[in-house]
Write a structure and sequence with these properties.
This is PABS domain-containing protein. Keywords: Membrane, Polyamine biosynthesis, Transferase, Transmembrane, Transmembrane helix. This protein has 24 helices and 11 strands. It is α/β, with parallel strands linked by helices. The protein has 2 domains: 412 residues, Growth Hormone, Chain: A, CATH 1.20.1250; 174 residues, Vaccinia Virus protein VP39 (Rossmann fold, 3-Layer(aba) Sandwich), CATH 3.40.50.150. The strands form 2 sheets. The chain has a 7-stranded mixed beta sheet with strand order 7-6-5-8-9-11-10, sandwiched between helices. Helix 12 links the parallel strand 6 and strand 7. Helix 7 runs antiparallel to helix 8, helix 14 crosses helix 15 and helix 18 packs across helix 21.
Length: 685
């Protein structure tokens, strides 16, 4: 794409793998293999993150491993005639290791992601992250090798076309299973069937060698499904336990192995923790709560408290449908059965941008997602809730005399001050800041629409010289104190790049094979940066929900497919001209601010956002398709492009320092480098 996949308008002499007989003809086999490749990548990211909590915060480490494996798979084409039976075997080993040695995260380390205290168990990150990275690479190398073997049997762009159709099919299947809340045993069954379809051998013992690891995967995932009693939402593995504590009914909810929520009666929660009462005590509107908005409604305790405080209408916003379902079915107070409550399964920031309603109280109730947006290295599901622009949006939805409040266990005093300073910048006056407990910095921060609309117990001292500035939509990294890349990222990314260089040399031979395709390597680097900017931009404009994420990824593939079809069917301008269109598209994306897009009506916002985001993606893939179609060795060129995508995934962490908008500049510089390295013969025609 941009490239990320592709393949030649002239058919080269088939290598030995191309002559391997298969019961499926080339085109359907290519669709199945590429669809399986993307499905397996998404399933690995999703499942490993639910059991190894480090990977909830480092989702793109599995993505980087996948890119490495796919690149290596293509580079292996022509170097061996053996079938990649190693892929299901390593997948089975990975599943067993993850289930036998699950990990809960140590979030006592200060950094961009860890911010509350919880003890750790299981293998340390320096051990388990490399293991999962390497295993993901080896597992994905198998389907990629099968995809690559189809390319020499077709014209390059025709192979690219069917590869993209397969990728769209893989995304569609995984999205459908997410919608149906299918457990991982279903994902494992899909993988087992795909392996059988693609690798079914003639010899009996070879069949046994294929079936045994597939059955291990399905069996282990079935045991996990039955013993954990988990609900699989699009974001988490959700487990819950109902019981009593001192005769008080309660339900404890864990997500991805971390204690997350507790559903208890409102009266008991108010007795146990003062933070739940303070938003109402600090609001001058507490006596007339006609309309209340609760973002992060979860299993319903905050909603129940609002009702007990006299709210006449409550909009309950929750991003995870399973948490909402648990609250509807099992909360002791049954708050979601109350006719005064309307539930909304969506992202909180997106709801604020879309609704025209006004509220007496807006409450951000412990919105801690414990996971990242898929496809972005550092964007949490709730990142856009804590920016200055988000608090301004909340302010704009308050009635006269209304107030806005948030509470959580912030752990660091500078984090409390940062949020209070952000609220001060948005509202124009100091908020009320209540430190409920010094342990864990349990705090409540409240601001009235005016200073008269709030009743502070004491004056907040204000931000100090050590307090970081408010976060914004371009750098929404609330938990990153300094403008830097945390050391844990730098070390891990450095190790990933070293391992990748050694793996490429060991599997593909000398780097001189890829030297003629350095420009294609750079196209892969730049495209991943462009894709990251699209994912994060659409998350801001339309919500960080899994549906938006799936649509964006599918939209990127559709744009790539459109570029391929245009290149196949029409005479497109020479590459220098298309590079000019590409750079113009990047300039347009740079000049159109997200703040302006957010001010547009939703239908118009969608149209403009699609044009702005996908114009450079389309142009980049026309460039890639034209260049790739004329490459002398399609599989090596394709592998170089995918390895570039892996490096682009590492450079994505620059956003922590420069922001997401500046990734467009980095991508533009890399594209200029690709143009400078373009062979002279490719500059015409």
């Amino acid at each position: 794409m941009g490239g990320m996949t592709a393949a030649a308008e002239t058919t080269p002499t088939p290598h030995p793998d191309a002559r391997h007989e298969h019961w499926l003809s080339t085109r359907p086999r290519l669709v199945v293999a590429s669809g399986f490749m993307l499905f397996l990548e998404l399933a690995l990211i999703r499942w490993t993150g639910s059991n190894i909590v480090h990977l909830s915060y480092f989702t793109n480490f599995v993505l980087l491993g996948s890119f490495l494996g796919i690149g290596l798979g293509f580079l292996r084409v022509g170097r061996t005639t053996r079938q990649p039976y190693y892929s299901p075997i390593v997948l089975a080993a990975l599943v067993l290791v993850v289930l036998l040695f699950p990990v809960t995260v140590d979030r006592q380390t200060e950094g961009v992601l860890y911010w509350t205290s919880l003890s750790a168990s299981g293998p340390p990150p320096w051990l388990i992250l490399p293991v999962v990275f390497a295993a993901a690479a080896i597992v994905l190398m198998g389907p990629a090798e099968l995809v690559g073997r189809c390319f020499p049997e077709l014209d390059r762009l025709e192979a690219y076309r069917y590869d993209l159709i397969g990728s769209l099919t893989g995304i569609g299947l995984f999205t459908a299973l997410s919608f149906l809340s299918a457990p991982p045993v279903v994902w494992g069954a899909v993988a087992a069937v795909a392996y059988a379809v693609l690798l079914w051998p003639r010899r009996f013992w070879a069949r046994v060698a294929l079936l045994v690891p597939s059955l291990v995967v399905v069996g282990a995932l079935a045991v996990e499904t039955l013993t954990a009693g988990a609900l699989w939402s699009p974001y988490y593995k959700v487990t819950y336990v109902r019981g009593y504590w001192n005769d008080v009914p309660l339900m404890n909810i864990d997500v991805n192995g971390i204690p997350h929520q507790q559903a208890t009666p409102a009266r008991n929660r108010l007795e146990w923790e003062r933070q739940y009462a303070l938003p109402y005590e600090r609001s001058a509107a507490a006596g007339r709560l006609d309309d209340v908005l609760i973002v992060g409604a979860g299993s319903g305790t905050d909603v129940s408290i609002a009702l007990s405080k006299g709210a006449r209408r409550v909009d309950a916003v929750e991003i995870d449908p399973k948490l909402l379902e648990l609250g509807r079915s099992h909360h002791p107070d049954r708050p979601y059965d109350d006719p005064r409550v309307t539930t909304h399964v969506t992202d909180g920031r997106a709801f604020l941008e879309r609704t025209s309603d006004k509220y007496d109280l807006i409450l951000f109730a412990l919105p801690d997602s414990l996971t990242l947006v898929s496809g972005a290295s550092s964007l949490r599901l709730e990142s856009y809730l804590f920016t200055q622009q988000a608090m301004e949006a909340a302010r704009d939805h308050l009635k006269p005399g209304g107030s806005f409040s948030m509470y959580n266990y912030y752990r660091e005093s500078w984090l409390v001050d940062r949020l209070a300073a952000t609220m001060q910048a948005a509202f124009g006056h100091k908020p009320c800041v209540d430190i409920v407990s010094e342990t864990g910095q349990q705090a409540v921060i409240t601001a009235g629409l005016t200073s008269d609309a709030q009743r502070c117990g004491g004056e907040w001292a204000g931000a100090t010289a050590e307090t970081p500035p408010p976060t914004g939509d371009d750098r929404p990294f609330l938990y990153l104190k300094d403008r830097t890349i945390p050391e844990i990222y730098l070390i891990t990314l450095g190790l990933i790049l070293i391992v990748s260089m050694l793996a490429v040399r060991a599997v593909a031979g000398p780097y001189t094979r890829m030297r003629p395709y350095t420009d294609l390597f750079l196209l892969g680097v730049a495209f991943l940066l462009l894709e990251t900017k699209s994912v994060t931009g659409f998350a801001l404009l339309f919500g960080t929900t899994w549906v938006v994420n799936a649509i964006v990824f599918a939209g990127v593939l559709v744009a790539v497919l459109a570029a391929v079809e245009v290149t196949r069917r029409f005479r497109v301008p020479p590459l220098p001209v298309m590079y000019g269109v590409l750079l113009a598209g990047l300039l347009l994306a740079w000049l159109v601010p997200n703040s302006w897009l957010l001010g547009l009506p939703l239908p118009l916002r969608a149209v403009v956002a699609v044009v702005v985001a996908f114009l450079p993606i389309f142009a980049a893939n026309v460039v890639f398709a034209k260049r790739f179609a004329d490459s002398a060795d399609g599989t090596v060129a394709f592998g170089a492009n995918l390895l570039g995508a892996m490096v682009g995934g590492c450079l994505e962490y620059l956003a922590l320092v420069v922001g997401y908008q500046a990734l467009l500049i980095v991508a533009g510089v890399v594209y200029l480098g690709a143009f400078a390295l373009l062979p002279r013969t490719a500059r015409v025609g």
